[in-house]
Amino acid sequence: MEIQITHGNEMVVALSGRLDTTTSIELSKRLEAEEINEPLVIFDLKETEYISSAGLRLLLYWKKELAKTKKAIEIHNLNSVCQEVFKVTGFGNILNVK
Amino acid sequence: MKFRFPIILKIALLGLLVSAIASSVALTISGINQNNRSKTTLINNIDMSLYSVDYSYTNGEDGANLVAQLKEVKDYVQNTIYNNPELHDAKLEDFASFEEYEKTFQSFSQWIFPDGKMIIGSQPYFSFKAAYRELTHIISEAHLSSGAHAAYVAYREEVNGEKRLVFINDTRITNPDPKNEFYHLPGSHYVFTEKDEYIDKNDEDYFGYKINGYLTRLVPIYDTEGDKEEVACVFVEYDLKTISDTNLRIVLNELTILSIVMVVTVGLYMLIAHMTITRNLNKLTKATVSISNDLKEKKPIEPIVLQFKSHDEIATLADSFDVMELEIVNYINIIKQEAKENERREAELEVASSIQLNALPDKDYRDDNLNLAAFIKPAKTVGGDFYDYFYNKDEFIVIIADVSGKGIPAAMFMMKAKTLLKAKILSGLPLVDAVSEVNKELTANNESLLFVTAFIAAINFNKNEIHYVNAGHEKPYLIHQNKVIKLDGASNFVLGGEEDIVFIEEKAKFEKGDAFFTFTDGLNESINKNEEEFGYDRVIETLSESSGLSLNERLDLFNNKLKEFVGNEEQFDDITMITLSRNDGSYHLRYEQKDYAVIDDAINKFEEHFADVDDETRAHVGIALDELLNNLVSYEKREDLIIELDFKKEKEGLKVVISCNGDDYDPFAKHKEKYLEHDDEDIAPGGFGVKLVKTLSKKYEYHYQDNHSYITLYF
Question: Are residues B396 and B542 in the same domain?
Fold first, then answer.
């Protein structure tokens, strides 16, 4: 899994590969080390093959974490597998999916 | 620096020693001769003078006259002195002065010198009484002409059993010995002792006495009248010690001269020896040192040509040295040349080695029918082992072979064999005929008598069988349902050995999921430090252990076992291994660890193995593996957890079985599902994961059997 973070008006976290148990831990460590000043964090899943429940839990955690400082998250560019996962688990309703 | 004793000194010392010994022997002999010679000469002279005295006293009228005179002197001495006890006992040393003597012997003096006084030592003859004068004259002649140290006249008598000598005259009265003033006074006498010795005329040339270390020779004077009694004797006395002393002096003189001559000779000897021997030896040494220095400093050798003019052994040595020197120079050049040659050859070998390895197909091969992995490790840079595989229509051909010998010749023979085998097999001939043809071609013109052992197999997927020709090669193994079976069919003769061989082809079942392992004898004949072979038992053992492993893991296992067995021993033969497995569409993974790393590894391996499956299905399987393995690793209590995964393409789709030795826990049970429809803050892990698995799979099932849980999914 490759993580690419760009800062600007909003912070963009571009993820390629799988977002599962193993890679969630990696991503979590990266985000904790990041200084986030932007009001919006976009998770760009364009290159993400699939996301498992571990990945979903990570996104949910960061939604709540950022909300404490009045920041929001958005999930962008889901492929069909990820869309299916979001739909099946109901996360599509909880997370702001664009 | 080490102490050296110069050869020149050794030679000199040796010369000195030898000449010293020779001289002393010579001198001793000469000394003895000299002694004898002097003694003989002296005695001859004495005898001559005594003869002369004898002659004077016996020669006619003159002789009779002399005897009469002697008798006169004797009578006077006998009557006036000898019979007077006072004078009789007088000794010269007893007198304080000559005047005293004169006084005492007044009558004698007056008798001898009627006209004057007697002066000892310088008395002119004419002043003597005639009789005494003649007597003195004759014995003085005898004394002085012979070289003896004294002459005297005495008569012999016997008184009361004592033998006596009574002196009448002594030459030393008129010719005193400067070293010894002693002389016999007229009328004094000597009594013979037992030590004194009379020498008879029979033993020597003349009579004589040996008295007190002195030797005397005598001539008796006989009376010319009456019964011709002995009147008196003329004695000549000589001292043997004087002769020896004289001779010693002569010898010492000779010794001095000899020593000087010897030192000069030895000096010359050293000089000549230096010119002819040591100077050349030094040159030789210098040349040797120069060469060895050049060698030490790795400088080019500057040849020193010695060419001595002499014709001795040193010149021979120098000639050998000259030859040796040139040989060394040549030899060094040859070695340098060879080193360069070797370097070039090694570079060529490396190129040859890479050409050879490039001539072999890839070490990994995979298609729908089978997977193959190969390993080859030449013992020398260029080896004699090879393998090959290719499709011949719908049969898959595998060849493994070992050419006898090593290095370039073996490699070239190997290339020929490999090319021929492939060409003949692809030409459409039945396998056994193709092998037969190859054998014929390899045997023809095989002057270097190389041969090759080979195992040539063809796998027929439709008939589920492997048919093969074994040309003297190690027998391979099949693995059928975790059982190791030796391919024990008939073994033929090697290829390239005999032209007319009828090869036999064998066959065996080779079903889906079966594996095959073949190798060259470099494997089983690898030797450890105790000279033990790796052997077939270890091959079979390793194969059994590798049954659950992938093909590359199997080869790795062999390499590790071999490394462990062989230790630091040098590999002496090429080692080649090939293993292949027939696909049954299934894929097996096994983990004996309770670790999150298992999840990632399993997903990676699955994705790698099933690269041909569509992305969506692979994503679904990936999610399912992540969810279910996460559950097992997180919630199973036992630490010795063993998780096994089986993947297999089936008609209904991709079947995935996740089994483990854990608790009986059905993740799909109704009450464990958790639906996330609201913003749930406390999402239990696994809850919506299981929901995901259920949704993404076509079919899911759980059962527990023999203490193992099985989750079966279809995608």
Answer: yes
**Which of B626, B677, B683 to mutate: most A Cβ within 10 Å?**
B626
- Hey, are the CB atoms on B676 and A90 less than 8 Å from each other? yes
B556-564 CB contacts, 8 Å cutoff, 24+ apart: B558/B375, B558/B523, B559/B375, B562/B523, B562/B526, B562/B534
Which residues on chain A place their C-beta less than 8 Å from a C-beta of chain B? Answer: 18, 20-22, 49-54, 56-57, 60, 80-81, 84-85, 88-91, 93-94
**Is the CB of A20 less than 8 angstroms away from the CB of B619?**
no
Which residues, 6+ apart, have CB-to-CB distance to B271 below 8 Å?
Answer: none
Gap between the Cα atoms of B400 and B374, Å rounded = 10
The alpha carbon of residue A64 is apart from the nearest alpha carbon of chain B, in Å, by 9
Q: Are residues B440 and B492 in the same domain?
A: yes
Is the CB of residue B675 less than 8 Å away from at least one CB of chain A?
yes
Question: What are the tokens at B336?
Answer: 């340098």
- Check whether residue B601 and residue B704 sit in a common domain: yes
Residue B684 above 90 pLDDT? no
**DSSP per residue over B303-323, as a string?**
------S--SHHHHHHHHHHH
B414, B331: one domain: no
What's the one-letter identity of residue B396? F
Q: Which of B496, B492, B495 is nearest to B448 (CA)?
A: B496
pLDDT tens-digit readout, B508-539: 999 988 999 999 998 998 888 888 999 999 99
Helix pair angle (B615-635, B687-696), 10° resolution: 150
The torsion angles phi and psi of B211, rounded to 5 degrees, stand at -120, 120
Containing H/E element for B65?
Answer: helix B60-76
Q: What is the ipTM of this complex?
A: 0.93
Task: Supply the pTM of this predicted model.
Answer: 0.46
CA–CA separation, B584 vs B481, rounded Å?
A: 12
Give the residues across from B154 on adjacent strands.
B167, B233
**List of chain B residues whose C-beta atoms are within 8 Å of the C-beta of residue A95:** none
pLDDT tens per residue, range B190-245: 888 888 888 776 655 567 888 777 788 888 888 888 788 888 988 888 776 666 66
Homologous superfamily in CATH for domain A2-94: STAS domain (3.30.750.24)
Question: What would the mean pLDDT of B175-197 be, rounded to a whole number?
Answer: 75
Judge whether B468 and B456 are in contact, CB under 8 Å. Answer: yes
B616 and B516 fall within a common domain = no
Q: Domain span at residue B72?
A: 39-246
**B421 domain-assigned:** yes
**SS3 sequence of B192-237:** CCCCCEEECCCCCCCEEEEECCEEEEEEEEECCCCCCCEEEEEEEE
